[in-house]
Amino acid sequence: MRRTTAITVACMTAAALTVTACGRSADTGATTGGQTGAAVSTGKATGTITVWAMGAEGDKLPELTKDFEAANPGVKVQVTAIPWDAAHDKFTASIASGNTPDVAMVGTTWMGEFASSDALDPTPAQIDKSGFFEGAQKTTEVNGTSYGIPWYVETRVLFYRSDLAKKAGFDAAPTDWQGLKDMAKAMQTKAGAQYGIGLQAGGEGSWQTVMPFAWSDGADLTKDGGKAYNFDSPQLLKATQYYQSFFTDGISNKSAPATPTTEPDFVSGKVPMFISGPWMMSAVEKVGGAGFKDKYNVAPIPAGSAGSSSFVGGSNFVVFKNTKNRDTSWKFVQWLSDPKVQAKWYTLSTDLPSVKSAWDQGDLASDEKLAVFGKQLETAKAPPSFPTWEQAVKGLDGELEKITKTGEDPATGLKTAQASAESIGTGL
């Protein structure tokens, strides 16, 4: 899911998969922790595999798979492109009927659901997990077991008009929470901005706006050894109070439209700061025209007591247990994690590599703005892989909207969100 809240929001709009099982025993390969898939044979891949992929990635993937087929003569990779808005239901129906593809691209927030339904094959030990960004690798793990690989990643950083920042009296990006607020206010009072920074005013996906600040202050979305939700922690409360203050102080627009006008507002200077992902670079430069790339910059999320952190999203690649060609399925997934393959995929799709060493190649190594995303990915975090995550976080999003738009007390809102999450349970 990309372009604004891409993978995650598409995932969150889908109906959650109902899970009735509470885990599997160790002898069935299961989700009770630390399982490793059986080894994959050495040698060339053989036969045919079916692959499902969503959105633009599904359209572009066949061009990449030609290289895998060329390296493994006789292999056939059959890619089916699926619209994001239909994907979740298609996956759950295929799992229920036992007619899953061999391999698939899966949104990160779906991993807990699908693993807990016993649909995914654990990652073989020969796939080196240490080469991935840690936060991205965590998105593949359910109860300590990894399923598949993180294929591509995205994270959020601060976009700011560097030319207008100078008018506001700032020569560099803010590095802490107070600095961000000071710059945003100065953008209004000294640089002519209507709003100093564009922040999502609650609603679906707004947790992704708050959590980078909360994680930067040491928040954890789980408690009890990772076995329960933790929406009312002191760290999340502090971050939510900070987030609310932008709206109560008139620095951010609490009546912002549901469909953001980020690019034109950023280019005009109406809203000269926002937090988003790498796809927004080309978007604002397209609207801004020639030379606009020199009028803005990007910076890590301003740090809290635990340093700078952000949200890591993207998509994973998994192998389903029902595959009829397990060896070739895993060889294909492993091939997708090769640094050279990841770098080529970036040239085809602009999807950022999940493998750290791929960032040493081509534009990924030379582009200073992209390097900021790479640095942020080193500390970016993902939500828990509970099967019920998408259900539970809706309660948090709803309370965040009350906090920003009606001035609800953050402590009250978070306690309400926590009570709702506890009533839903983790699904494990």
From TrEMBL:
Residues 406-428 are annotated as: Disordered. The keyword Transport applies. Keywords: Signal, Transport. InterPro entries: SBP. The keyword Transport applies. Residues 1-21 form the signal peptide. Residues 415-428 have a biased composition (Polar residues). Belongs to the bacterial solute-binding protein 1 family. PANTHER family: MALTOSE-BINDING PERIPLASMIC PROTEIN, MALTOSE_MALTODEXTRIN-BINDING PERIPLASMIC PROTEIN. This is Sugar ABC transporter substrate-binding protein. The lineage of its organism: Bacteria, Bacillati, Actinomycetota, Actinomycetes, Micrococcales.
